[in-house]
Amino acid sequence: MNYKENNDHLIPSADPRLRFSKYNQEISAAIQNVLQSGSYILGNELIRFEREFADYIGADHCIGVNSCTDSLTLCLKAENIGQGDEVITTGLTAPATAIAILNTEATPVIVDIEKNSFNISIEEIQNSITKNTKAIIPVHLHGKPCNLEAVSKLAEKHNLVVIEDCAQAHGATINNQKVGSIGDYGVFSFYPTKNLGCMGDAGAITTNSSSKAEKVKSLHNYGFDDKGQIINAGLNSRMDEIQAAILNVLLPHLDEYNESRKQYALKYALDLNAEKFHFHPFDNNSVYHQFVIQVKNRDEIRNRLLNEGIQTAIHYNKPLVDHPALAPFCKQLPNAKIASESMISLPIQPEILSLHYQTIIETLNRIG
Ligand SMILES: *Cc1c(COP(=O)(O)O)cnc(C)c1O
Question: How far is the CA of 95 from the centre of ligand 1 (A)?
Fold first, then answer.
């Protein structure tokens, strides 16, 4: 199946059906297996996924949960972070990152991004640390690792927990180590359009600490301990067997998939007219969840692309300060504001681009 069978003349900005249909037979068989197993929650598919994903990331432990939002909430709860505590995060991310902090009743402290990257500003973190700060949640936005080394240094100095939001960065690396294996915790989303995605909601937490893993394992299953007693009120946040089975089919193909995204990102970087479009230099450590260009006349360019059959997206068109429930927790976010007003995410899904990237590049270079 290619995009033309779904949607007459549009090159979609992202279409997870293209990915699932490529592995249709394996996925169907895996789902049938689950149906017949009689085990739908906390079964063998999840056990296998947790082991294989931990191995893939290079972390000692992995706990499969219901979403990345829950993953963040669970890590904060495992650290007893709540009312009166402050957690620093970035102003340019999915709102879920900040919402998870509010879910624990802790106070988000939302800071600006760097000028020359879309990731959290180290200087702004430094300026925002108070005696109430307990944790930092840096995001590897668009699949590109943030400056985690600098984040970790600050965290060590001030005794803060680091939770890496890797929802867009499955397989991205820093000095040959995968993100999610470096901070105290890594959190992942398997929402259908992520680099590794299933057919519903799912998420995971990785950590190298067995005591942290134990705590999260209890908290994601109501708060049961190994004697079947509730020690702390937890959540019901479990990855179901069908989603785990789908992820078990797709995980072995993740590296090849990321490699393909990188190849198309490199082609964009080489072939797009750099005088007309601003974009960050190609980064071999990124897994290119998005390839983002920046233009002044953003809406006009997007409309013209759409008229030529090319769908695009924006990640994100609102910095967190533009969300009424999050605005009170935001510092000044001038860089995030400029980025959100100028950015366009181009199609980068391998199944689409193998046919159409040349059309996208030629169209952009003509109309830009
Ligand atoms: C998608 C995403 C989330 C939320 O993931 P869910 O699984 O939908 O809860 C959090 N952070 C970032 C950076 C994301 O891209």
Answer: 8
Q: Find out whether the beta carbon of 189 lies less than 6 Å from any atom of ligand 1.
A: yes
Distance CA 208, CA 213 (A): 8
Q: Where are the alpha helices (DSSP H) in the chain?
A: 3-6, 16-22, 24-37, 44-57, 68-78, 96-103, 122-128, 148-158, 210-219, 241-250, 254-271, 298-307, 334-342, 350-367
For residue 203, the CA-to-ligand 1 centroid distance in Å is 9
pLDDT digits (tens, 9 = 90+) for 157-211: 999 999 999 999 999 999 999 999 999 999 999 999 999 999 999 999 999 999 9
Cα dihedral 37, 235, 205, 324, rounded to 10, equals: 130
Q: How many angstroms separate the alpha carbon of residue 266 from the centre of ligand 1?
A: 25
The residues, ordered by sequence, that sit 6+ positions from 76 with a Cβ below 8 Å of its Cβ are 82, 87, 100, 101, 104, 106, 135, 163
Q: Which residues contact 47 (CB under 8 A, 6 or more apart)?
A: none
pTM above 0.90, yes or no: yes
Cα 155 from Cα 185, distance rounded (Å) = 13
